[in-house]
Amino acid sequence: MKQNNLKQGKCNIIGVTGGVGAGKSTVLDYIGKNYNCLIILADEVANTIKKKGYPAYERLTDLLGKEILGDDEEIDRSRMAAAIFGSKELLDKVNNILHPLVNDYIIKTIEEHREKNEKDFVFVEAALLIENGYEALVDELWYVYADENIRRERLKASRGYTDEKIDNIFRSQLGDDEFRKHADFCIDNSGSTKEAALQIDNRIGEWKNNGKLRTSGTESGLRS
Prior knowledge:
Blueprint: E1 12-17, H1 24-34, E2 37-41, H2 42-49, H3 55-64, H4 77-84, H5 88-116, E3 121-125, E4 140-145, H6 148-159, H7 163-172, H8 176-182, E5 185-188, H9 193-209, E6 219-220
Parallel strand pairs: 1-3, 1-4, 2-3, 2-6, 4-5
Helix pairs in contact: 1-9, 2-5, 3-5
């Protein structure tokens, strides 16, 4: 574990990453209930910027056609998925539209909350934090780890994935060694939520124990 870079009196930016099935959502749920923070989920940002009036909406409808729209004229996820299905070229084009816009939205949100300095923490969760260079933007990068067999069983139970699908996903993501090389802090989430919570509290628990945490409410999701 690297030196603790968290500071009192400022809004600390923490990136949270890890492989699929590691339990990042469980970890963030605990953090959101117990600390004065904003939680930014990259998947939710992607859904937001696809809405009418946001920058990705027009570019995606130009690329894929009005057929991806629902009756409310918003982009329908299932129709969009059907339009992309089987075409790596279209998928790459969609990702090239979404990924930079998601990054821009997150960076803007981080900058706004650094300036406001009302929250003790902003947690940013995304699968590609390391690949997208977020290390330069965050004060710390946290890696949520779980044993591969446990991740496999979780994915089977919660999502109904087959071993073949899980193997393909694991191969497409960074390995444990690579995550650890970049991480400032590793949370072992192979066990219970209580065990993971203790590790989190030990990392930032001196704030809580000393009663110095600011007490305004927690926000989860997006703030524009």
